[in-house]
Design a protein that fits this description.
The protein is built from four helices and two strands, in the order αααββα. The chain is mainly alpha-helical. It has two domains: about 5-50; about 70-105, no CATH class.
Length: about 110
């Protein structure tokens, strides 16, 4: 059995175990498996699921006020997401901005 086939087999077994509602010991006994094998694969899939998923990048439209060219050279930047507007000033916290934009994108 190749690694891919083994992974697929255990992926199906883990899904069947979770859907069964049985204890690990009872399910393993019914399927002629050792509980430590199931626990290994449960832990393996849990660790893979908890890895941060990277969302695909998306481009956003940016409008520049051509009537007031000085507005693009100020110390701040306005970000509009739906009805929300965020003013970003020099020295901002990029992690905080990322969190706020992510939350607003889900709401707006």
């Amino acid at each position: 059995m190749t690694k891919e086939e083994l992974r697929k087999t255990w992926e199906e077994r883990v899904a069947a175990f979770k859907a069964s509602g049985q204890t690990a010991s009872a399910w393993c006994a019914a399927h002629d498996l050792k509980p430590h094998q199931l626990f290994y694969w449960l832990r393996k899939y849990k660790n893979n699921a908890s890895a941060p998923a990277t969302a695909p990048s998306q481009w956003l439209t940016m409008e520049i006020d051509k009537q007031n060219p000085d507005s693009a050279q100020g110390d701040s930047l306005l970000i509009r997401l739906g009805q929300a507007t965020i003013e970003v000033k020099a020295g901002f916290n990029p992690i905080l901005l990322s969190d706020v934009v992510r939350i607003l994108a889900g709401i707006c």
